[in-house]
Every structure is written in structure tokens, then in C-alpha cells.
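QA checklist item 7 of 12: single-chain prediction sanity check.
[x] sequence parsed
[x] length recorded as 662
[x] structure emitted
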Amino acid sequence: MGRKTQKHKKEKSHSSYVGVLDITRSGMGYVVVEGLQKDILVRPSDFNRAFHGDKVKISMTNENNRTGRVQGVVTEVLERKQSEFMGTLEVSRDFAFFIPDSQKSIPDFFIPPSNLNKAKDGDRVIVKMIDWRKGDKNPKGQVITVLEGVNANDLAMKELLVQHGFPLLFDDEVLEESERIPEKISKAEIENRKDLRDILTFTIDPADAKDFDDALSFREIKKGIYEIGVHIADVSHYVEPDTELDKSAYERATSVYLPDRVLPMLPERISNELCSLRPHEDKLTYSCIFQISAKAEIKHYWIGRTVIHSNHRYTYEDVQEIIEKKEGLYFNEVLLLHDLAQKFRKGRFKNGAINFSSQEVRFKLDEDGKPLGIVIKESKESHQLIEEFMLLANRTIAENVSKMKINKKAIPFPYRIHDQPDEEKLLPFMAFARKFGHSFETDSPEAITSSFNKMLQAVQGMPEQHVLEQLGIRTMAKAIYTTENIGHFGLGFEFYCHFTSPIRRYPDILVHRILDQVLSGKIKPDKKLEEKCRHSSERERAAMETERASNKYKQVEYMKQFLGEEFDAVISGVASFGFWAETIEHKCEGLVSVFSLQDYDEFRHMEEDYCLVGRRSGRTFRMGDRVRIKVIAANLTKRQLDYEWVLQPDIPDNNKKKKKNH
């Protein structure tokens, strides 16, 4: 724990590099190469059939002496970020062209008549690129979906998914492969597994979930010692390496959860039927079974393939009610699991985990996906119950595999790592926190964690709680998948992986496959595992960006009805061109432009204080301050809300007092 992640070695051969092409709105391209201080400039004529976001091989051409900018030319497209595109069809008598919707530079696609899929001139369509031969001016495409008679919201959600490289449909070969898998579990398969069907087992999931990844089993084996099983859908039994199913799952690498839909990583035949741990059905699972004392001490654990039979399906609300009322179906078992989970949780924070609180915005939607209301969901004890046992299983699996060696070397394994905060981000945050009376020790990762937790505990219920939590989260590194384990700083774990959600995350399938090799003693190290980890991390980031953009779209759609109305808000970000404010009631963020403040004063940005300060009045707009705003614009196309600050003359201005205190 504590050492920084090693940079990936730059790939170089005869002035050749591998990187990702970033095309700006002006049409100019830059290839971002890890390990190089400056990006490589690529002119549009040198893209060589590469699109924005593609992984490319690039050769150097020359260096611009005036700017020091190195120039290059794309020699090969190694990996496409996006294969499907949304746009408009132009059909003539003998051929058709597809004009993609994109702010980036993308050429029109040539669509042969045989590839039109009944699409007509002017149709909004999704087209898949099937070929782009050297020498051809345009890529060749195939219409896979005609977007007709669909509402604006549906189109917007599909567009976001396509823009971020997520195919909307599964190929026919993938669907056929999934349909051929037999539903019935053979007697021979059951005999090869530990049979746990007679043990009390249940699932706990959101009310609208259909893909039940995990289940818990419970029994008391002697007084004060409990056997608790964490059972995970055995997706790797059904999805075998190098099949069409596997290739499709790897390409997506994750399910994407939007406000009104889920784009699954696997076809519904797998995710919602064969692998979903539905009640009153025999299911194949990978399990981590613990013997745990009443004091939450792990006495023993076993890992292996199992068959289970869930007795009951709970929602989080069901379990929360049992915890609060201490009554209901299997309430004794649920309360014991709750008690153990809270002990694990307390122990984690004592041993170095950071206790950031989390809030989630959920939308109440009508049948067309239009938002009717916004609900703020917080993590409750029922969520923590599942979270703690999943963390325990993930940590135990990673620790177990880390001990295994082949030729005295560690087995390549997809660890989930989280680096300690970057010093450049941490120092200004520490200086800001000090103004509220919070000091930070930075001698070790443990000291940083302890300082964070002391601060988070001290600010509970205080006006500055929101700002310090948000800024604290922003200092954190991003968790990624890699074979180079450095531990998980945020959780305080030396070893950690993702094992518990193989229906919706590809790295979990990789973990199951490697675990199977370890348990059988037939280990075949995967030479491409680090590449698979990088791809999975990139797809995870793309999914998060898609989810964030879709939430923003829904927020803008919801706030359109309140144009001209005023709300209480909290300043959630500050820049030289204005500040962002988030409404307290709906958690909807909009921008208050500095131009709209010109009538009051001329404001300058104090970056280290996260605030705007008036040159004449000294009035401040600081991150975390409560303000009154008016909704003045809601742009769905740009997914952007514009607010105006409302001066309230009847409320005394405490800015000058605040300035002295800080």
C-alpha cells in the first residue's frame, strides 16, 4: 500500500508509438501516449481511417520547432472505440450515404442497397461500420436499426450509448449462441459441485432488478459460530472463452445503467434467466463460504463451485423494514447478518477505509421515460449488509489468489486497485480544509486516511459538510483494473478484486476463470491480461460518462417545467467564468455565468479558495455556500441548465464575516 502506480512503458519502435486519437471540434487530432509529456499532433489528412477515441499506432514525421509540438501520422487502427453510429440516411437510386451525428470529424458512410435493411431516404438510423479498405474514400456500413416512431427521450438515450461506443443490439450469432444453452442443469454437473440446496438462501436487490448476481446463505453450525455463504452467479460456466458470447461481453465489458433502461453486458437469456439467482430455482454458483464467530472473526473459509436454491427474494426496502421493526420472514437470520455486517464495517473504518457518505439521484418516470420527480437515495443498513459481505468475498478471493505462485512468480490476476491521493490535488484541499479547522497528516497512507475520517466525522451536519465531502472525493485517484497490485487505498485493503458481479462486469468473469485454474491446479497465465484490464477500465469509464450524461439529460428535462422559478441551492463548483449551483430539493446542477453577475460587481477567481470574489464589494461566492437561484434556461441538446443568482436584500450579507473567519 502507498506506492504510486507505475506508468505503463511507452511502446516505441523506430519512432513509433501506440496511443488514443483525440479529435478536437476544429478537426485537428492529437494522439495521447502514456509516458510522453506532449501529445502528438495529427493532421486530418493523416488520420488514415481512424476515428475519435480509436487506439492507433502512430509514426513520427517531424517536430515543429516553433511550438515544440511533435507531429505524426496514423499507420494502423488497433482498436475501434465505436463501431455503431447514429445519423441520417440519404438514399438515391443505386446507392445510399449515411451522415453520422457527431461533433467530431467522421466521414459519411457508403451503404450498398443490400445493406439498407428496409431503411428509406431521410430515416434516422443506426449504422454499423463493416469495412473500410485502404484506398476507399468512405467506410462501408450496414443499417442495423431504423429509429422510427420513437420519442425524443428514447433517441437521446440511444445516442448517448452509441456515442460512448456501446452497441445497442447483440449480433444474431451472439443471441443464437445464448439460446442454444440448455436450461436444465445436468445431474453430472451437480455431482461435480458442493450441493447447498438445503441451506437457507436468499437474495437482496433493488425492487426493479432482474439480474440477481449474488445470494447469501445462513446456518448456525455450533453455538456462536455461523456458516455464511456468498454465492455468485457462475457466468463462466455458460460463457466460455473465445465464443461469440464471450467476445461480445468483452467488447462491452460492463452493463450500462441509465435512468429508464439497462443496456446489459450479456443477452437477457443469460443475465435475466440462466444466471439470475431467482427464487425457487436451482442455480449454478461460485461461492465463498465463511465460518464466522458472533464477534465477526473469520475462523475458516472455503472457495469453490456450488449449486444453490434461493428460498426468498428480498428488496432492500424489505430488509430495511426487518432491521428497523425486528420482525418479518427469517428476521432472526437477517438481524444476525446485519449485526455482523455492521461489525465488519466498523472494523474496516478502524483499519484504514475512508468513510465517504454516498447519495444517489433516482428519477420517477412515466411510461415514455419522462421524469415526474426526483428521489435522493442514501445508503442504508440493508445496502450495507450486502456491501460488507461482497467486500469480504472480493477481498478473500484476491488474498487467496495472491498466495499462489507459478515458477516462483505471482499468477497474473485482475486486481482492483486504488492509488493514494495525488499530492497536487491533496495540497490545495488540505489548505482549504484548514480554514475550517481540519488538519491533515501526510506521513503515510494510513495517516492520510485517518485525517480524512476525522474530518468527515467532524463535519457531519455542519454547513461545510457537502463541500468538504465533494472536494475530498475529487482528490481521490480513480480505481482501475490491473495485474500490478498496489492495494486499494479507499477501502484500506492490501488485496482486492471484483468477483461478485459477473453478470454485469467482465473482469469478474476473468476472476472466475483464473480462480477455476487455481482450484484445479491447471494454471495457464493469460499474456494479454493487462490489456484486458486496461480495456475493462476504459469501458467502465465510458459507462460512467454515459450514466452521468443521461442523468444530466433527465435533470434538464425535469427542470424545464420550472423556468423562471426560484430555488435554494448550494454552490457545487467554481471557475473563472462563473459558478455551478445544485438545487437542494432536486440535486440539479446549473451554471451561474459570471456575465450575469456583472451588474453587481466584477468578480475574480480565487482558485486556492474555490471562490469568486468581487473586486469592489468583497462579496464572495464560495463552494459550499447556500444561494438563491432562478432557472433561466434548460437546453436538452447540450444537457445544460443555466441559473441566475437572486439577491435577497432582506437577508444580511455574511460574506465579510465569513472572509474573516476563513
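[x] summary fact logged: Residues 175-403+411-415+499-547 form one domain.
[ ] second reviewer sign-off
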